[in-house]
Structure formats: C-alpha cells, structure tokens
Inverse folding.
C-alpha cells in the first residue's frame, strides 16, 4: 500500500495546504483503471445509449432491469464488493471513475446508482453473513435488483421522522410492516427493498430487507417526472407485510445511521456521476458551435460562445479535480485504518464519515455545475437546443434531479457547516483556535501576484482565503453561539465560501501537477479562470454573511478585512477564456482523459 499520511480528518484542507504529491488527479489513474473505464464505456455505447429513447418512452418496463442484468454480467454491479460475494473488490476511486462514466446515461445512471449504491451498500456494510449470502450475491450478479425506501410523503429531508411502523408479531417470529414510501427509484422492478421503519415507539428508524413478492406490497403507477423519464420511480405501500425477524438489517434503531452513511457515499458518487453528462454536453456544444454558421461565420468564433464554452470546461475540470482528490483521500484513509487493524467494512465506513464534508461539497458543486453546463449547452444550440432532435433537451431535463436527491443541496450546505462546528466543539479540528488568531490579527497584508511564480503566489492567495473563511466562521460562531443553526442564510454563505476554497485549491493543484509534467500553458489559463470565478464567489458570500448580522461599523471593518484577503491580480479574463475555448475547439473535444501534452 502507499503509505501516504493524508489529511487526518475531512475538512482539514481549511487549515493546511496539502502537498502536491498527496493530491490525486484523474491523470494519475493507471492502465488497469483506464481499461476498466474503457470497457464500461463500450458497454454503454453498445447497449445503453442506443436504448435511451426506448427507456424514456417506458414502452418496455423490462428494458431497464435487462440492462442492469447485462451490467451485472460484466461485473459492473459489484465493483466495490468483496470477491467472495461475486464482486471485483476495486478501489474507491475506481468506483468513482465508473460512476463518472455511467453519468452520461441519465436515466440508466439513476437506476445504476440506486442499485449499486443506496440499495446494495446497506447489505454490504450491515448485512449478516447469511443475509449477504442470500441477497448480496444476487445484487452483485444482477439476478436481484434493489431499491432503497426511505422517503415518505411527510418525511423527506427530515428522514428520521418517517411514520412507517414495524411491529413484532405475537409469536415473535416476524415483523409486520405498515407504511407508505415515496419517490422510490427502481421501485417498479426491484426484487429487494431496503425499508426504513420504526419499531413501536422508537425514536430512530430500523432497516429491514423486504422481498418484493410478499403479500401486502402495492404500488402506484410510474411517476410522470420532469426528467430521467426512463428510470422507474414509484410510490410503494406496505400493508401488514410480514417479514422474518432475521430480515432486520443492522441493529434496532440503527437504520438512520445506515441511511446517512450510505448517503455520504451516494453524495460523492453523485459528484463524480455528473461528469460524464458534462463532458457529453461540452463535446456536443463544441461540435455544434464549429458547424453552425451565422453572420457567415461559425458561431464558435463569437466571444459570447467562447465565454460559455470556457466556463463549462473550467467548471467540469474543477469538478473532476475535487471528486478524484476527495475519492483518493478516502481511499488512503481506508488503507490507513486497515493497517491500524480495522476490517475493510469498518475502515470504509469510518473513512467516508471522516470525509462527509468533502462528500457534501462534491454533491453540491457537481449538481450545480451540471445544471450550469446543460443550460449553457442548450443556449449554444439556440432554437435547436429546445428541440428533442438535438442532444440538449434530455440532458437539460435529466440534470435537474441532482440538486434534489441524495439530500437536497440546502440540507447538504447546512451539513457542511454543522459538521465543522460539531468537530470544532469536540476539538477534532482546530477551527475555533485558528479563527480567534485570525480575528485578533492586527494587520493583514494582501497577496502580491507574481507571474514568474504563478502557482506559489496563487497558493498564498488560497491561504488568505482560508483566513477569510476562518474570520467569517469565527465571527458568526461567536455572535450566534448555538443559535447559529437558525441562521441558515449565514450558514449557506459560509458553506459557499468553503466549497469555493476546496474547488479552487483542488483545481490549482491539478493544474500545477499537469503543468509541471507538460509545461502546457493552458493549465495557467484554467487556473486563472478558476481563481477569478472562485474569488468573486468567496468575496460575495463573505460580505453577505457579515452584513447579515453585524452593526454598520463592525461590518465595515469586516468588509475591509475581506477585501484585503480577496485582493489579487486583475487577470485579463476575456483573453483567458478565449484561450481556453480555442484550445478545446482546436482539439474538437474536452473528452475523458484529456491527455494534456
Ligand atoms: C426522481 C427521484 C428519485 C428519488 N429516489 C429516491 C429513492 O430511491 N429512495 C428514497 O428514499 N428517496 C428518493 N427520492 C426522494 C428524495 O431523496 C427527496 O425528494 C429529497 O430528500 C427531498 O425531500 P422532499 O422531496 O420531501 O423535500 P422537502 O424535504 O419537503 O424539501 C422541500 C424544500 O425545503 C428545503 N428544506 C427542507 N428541510 C430544510 C431545512 N431543514 N433547512 C433548509 N431547507 C430545508 C429543501 O431543501 C427543499 O428545497 C427521490 C426523489 C426523486 C424526485
């Protein structure tokens, strides 16, 4: 194993700079991982993508489960499952790469993600040996299809408030489940439901393995959705459904913990899962803008179009940078825990939990840039973008769900700040101490940009931006104390600052790593574009957070501090964006594994 000492704990990037050698970028994927990606891509191109319209039309409800079975035949349903259950036992970041590639398929990607993620992982992590023998093998081979039943009509974001009940039968051999679940992906064809319900008057949910054929399970017709129309989404009713006591998954009242742990994994995978879609839209937009002629020239020659292409590309590059950096951090942590004596399952769960902040960042950033990319892609197509004939309408509709499921982006933003506050109070991470130091600093200096030392001075800027975060975080924590949770606007501001810092630092590191190898100056342009965008986001949200509660005099002092932290070089952003767009227009593609030379 690589004995790299990684971040001790998620969120630590806010305090320290990580050495370049410890940052994983997607260019670091080895031959085996790339081959795996290629064979997955072949499968999608041959089997899934040609079926997109048929899937969306829902004329053949068997089609989606058939495709999942084919994915199972190729081993794609058990990437992160142990070999003894038929899986491939691949590394965490390899499974991220596959989620990335599958992402281009929209509806299939949702079905695949629900099956391999939220439906299979609870059995992997919390199943007994006999439960794994009975169900995990089938889920991995594709013989069984899975669904995860948490949401209810009156219990969405507040997932632990569900009303579904499980009551022990008189002979104490069975649980009788009653309840109604909503928005269940794969609901229409799943053979196994992971159902969350409360036993008697328990405070917390318990998870159960419920087979489809049991009496008392009914469902409404397929939901008519805005997008991902080819994915099955059902409302499911459980009326006196009797299941053996042995089908309790994990311990009594452990269900909410199971639900959350699995969602953390779902979140980071969703961040990666937007990437395939982003690349598809970017590549179509590049081709179309080169072909479409207006005013006697291809529209790609217009600055307005280059500006769009450049921003679509830089945001996608950034999303790749954060997802694979965080994915590898988790992977290294898993290895460290194993060396410390934990078994693989425990190591994975502990590592994921440690990086829950980064998982939420990847989910939020990924889902929001996907919406940005599909929207700009559609705009580049003009009127054609609005037609079902062009490859934009479907991605536009399919993208929107990502901000809603796996925890809405609002819930995830609260989670980021809430988790950091909790960890600071427990002294797991030293944010308060450092924040006090920054707040009490008499004089701060702005960072001076050096063209000769582009990356060095850019990291000095990032350090200042971290000071800016510590300042607004510390000020808000001191002002509101434990009441901060009811100041969601301020928490959202702080969250957006945190997200931008992670995005900027990860993008810079990837650019530097590639630049050192290739001397490709496009890396300087991408890094400058990222600095420009993230700097303005950080400044905007920092100022908004302090003026939301401070007196005018205090706010002015704070704004002075924020302005100094966020002052940097005025790059010619127009030329930078043109360079980036021209570079990829010439290459005719953004594509997977760019092979920057
Ligand atoms: C296509 C699709 C597939 C899905 N698949 C599954 C599945 O397979 N299994 C499953 O169990 N669920 C699934 N879901 C459900 C999904 O996870 C929920 O829709 C989501 O968690 C939000 O819950 P809700 O819809 O009840 O919205 P609500 O919780 O009612 O939220 C409404 C709005 O209020 C905001 N809000 C809520 N609480 C807070 C708060 N405390 N602070 C600030 N803002 C708040 C939300 O961010 C949102 O903007 C799916 C949903 C869809 C649409």
């Amino acid at each position: 194993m690589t004995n790299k000492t990684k971040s001790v704990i998620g969120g630590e990037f806010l305090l320290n700079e990580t050495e370049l050698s410890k940052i994983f970028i997607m260019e670091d994927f080895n031959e085996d991982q790339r081959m795996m990606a290629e064979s997955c891509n072949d499968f999608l191109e041959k089997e899934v993508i040609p079926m997109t319209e048929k899937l969306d039309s829902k004329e053949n409800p068997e089609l989606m489960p058939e495709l999942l079975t084919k994915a199972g035949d190729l081993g794609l349903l058990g990437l992160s499952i142990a070999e003894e259950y038929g899986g491939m036992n691949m590394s965490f970041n390899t499974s991220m790469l596959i989620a990335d590639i599958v992402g281009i398929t929209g509806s299939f990607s949702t079905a695949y993600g629900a099956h391999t993620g939220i439906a299979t992982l609870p059995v992997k992590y919390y199943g007994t040996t006999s439960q794994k023998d009975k169900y995990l093998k089938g889920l991995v081979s594709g013989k069984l299809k899975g669904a995860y039943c948490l949401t209810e009509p009156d219990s969405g974001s507040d997932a632990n408030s569900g009303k579904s009940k499980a009551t022990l039968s008189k002979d104490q051999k069975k649980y009788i489940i009653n309840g109604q679940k909503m928005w269940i992906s794969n609901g229409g064809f799943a053979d196994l439901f992971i159902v969350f319900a409360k036993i008697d008057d328990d405070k917390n949910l318990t998870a159960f393995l419920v087979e489809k054929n049991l009496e008392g399970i009914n469902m409404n017709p397929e939901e008519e959705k805005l997008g991902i129309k080819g994915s099955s989404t059902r409302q499911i009713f459980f009326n006196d459904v009797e299941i053996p006591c042995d089908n309790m998954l994990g311990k009594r009242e452990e269900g909410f913990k199971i639900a959350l742990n699995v969602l953390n994994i779902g979140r980071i995978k969703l961040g990666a899962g937007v990437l395939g879609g982003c690349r598809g839209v970017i590549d179509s937009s590049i081709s179309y803008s080169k072909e479409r002629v207006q005013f006697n020239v291809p529209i790609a020659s217009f600055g307005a179009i280059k500006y769009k292409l450049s921003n679509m590309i830089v945001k996608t590059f950034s999303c790749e940078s954060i997802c694979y950096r965080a994915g590898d951090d988790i992977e290294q942590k898993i290895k460290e825990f194993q060396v410390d004596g934990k078994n693989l399952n425990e190591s994975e769960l502990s590592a994921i939990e440690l990086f829950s902040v980064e998982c939420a960042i990847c989910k939020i950033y990924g889902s929001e840039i996907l919406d940005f990319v599909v929207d700009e892609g559609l705009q580049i197509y003009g009127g054609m973008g609005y037609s079902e004939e062009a490859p934009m309408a479907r991605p536009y509709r399919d993208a929107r769900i990502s901000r809603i499921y796996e925890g809405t982006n609002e819930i995830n933003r609260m989670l980021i700040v809430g988790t950091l506050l909790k960890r600071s109070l427990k002294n797991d991470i030293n944010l308060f101490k450092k924040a006090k130091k920054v707040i009490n600093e008499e004089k701060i200096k702005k960072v001076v940009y050096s063209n000769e030392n582009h990356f060095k001075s850019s990291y000095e800027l990032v350090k200042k931006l971290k000071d800016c975060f510590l300042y607004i975080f510390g000020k808000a924590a001191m002002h509101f104390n434990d009441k901060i949770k009811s100041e969601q606007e301020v928490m959202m501001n702080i969250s957006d600052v945190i997200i931008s810092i992670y995005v900027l630092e990860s993008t810079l590191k990837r650019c530097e790593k590639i630049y050192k190898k290739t001397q490709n100056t496009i890396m300087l342009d991408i890094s400058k574009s990222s600095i420009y965008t993230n700097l303005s986001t950080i400044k905007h949200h920092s100022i908004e957070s302090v003026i939301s509660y401070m007196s005018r005099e205090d706010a002015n002092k704070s704004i002075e501090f924020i302005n100094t932290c966020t002052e940097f070089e005025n790059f010619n952003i127009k030329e930078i964006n043109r360079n980036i767009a021209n570079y990829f227009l010439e290459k005719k593609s953004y594509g997977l594994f760019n092979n920057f030379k």
Observations:
- The mean pLDDT is 96.
- The pocket of flavin-adenine dinucleotide is lined by residues 114, 148-151, 156-157, 183-185, 225, 233, 401, 404-405, 408, 410-411, 414, 488 (CB under 6 Å).
- The beta strands are 146-149, 165-168, 174-185, 192-199, 206-211, 217-219, 233-244, 248-249, 293-294, 297-298.
